[in-house]
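Q&A FORM
Asked by: J.P.
Topic: structure of Replication-associated protein ORF2/G2P domain-containing protein

PROVIDED:
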Amino acid sequence: MAQIYGKTFSYPDGSGYVMIYKQAHSTYDSGPEKKKKERDDLFELSEEERDEENAGRSARRSKKAVRDYVACNTFTHFVTLTFRDEQSGKDDYRLKVLTNWLRYMKKKHGKFNYVVIPERHKDGRLHFHGAVDLTEFELEKAYNKETGKPIIRHGNHVRDIIEWQKNNGWGSAEIIRDQKKTANYMTKYITKDFETTVSKHKKKYWCSKGLNKPVQKSLRVLPQFSRPADWENDFVIIYNIDDMNSIL
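REPLIED BY: S.T.
REPLY: Here is the structure written out as tokens.
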């Protein structure tokens, strides 16, 4: 019975990461039996512990998906979408506005790449960040309304997303120079507390259909690393790799 020590995930630019299981899996340690064991393990916890464990799993899945999508696809801009003060602050309203806007933009411009996540402002209201391909969108250079000076971030002139601002608050767009940094910035908000940003059983991120994913391979030989892991929890250890060819 073969042992699986983890997985590798390769991005289009040749980088990626290695996920090593703290307990190796057999090739048969999957499917219904594995899921049943996970459920049994959860039932041994208290209700509060189960909720915390489920929130942690949900956050890890969301973080991995967002990072992988941003790293594996083409996006032109990092966007921030806000709402006017007079607009409703209710979550359901803002989520519906976002969903309808994305649907309308697809109808208007055709298929475009996007990954969008929610963030809760200090006042408790939702706004959104995302990596989006705005090639076909209507953009204008953004200026400070009080000073009239251009709004510059990271050396780039910020753009207004006119098609968002017509009916909502400020929609800003910054050119993406480094997709990995963009992915890291977006996922830093996704922690186990992310479950409370959007209500339980609600979407935690929005993405266009058909996005590329990293190439996955099972690890049948345990690699050795002479440096500390980039991240770990009770189940896996992760090493970020600049050149996946160096270990494959």
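FOLLOW-UP: The chain is about 30% helix and 25% strand.
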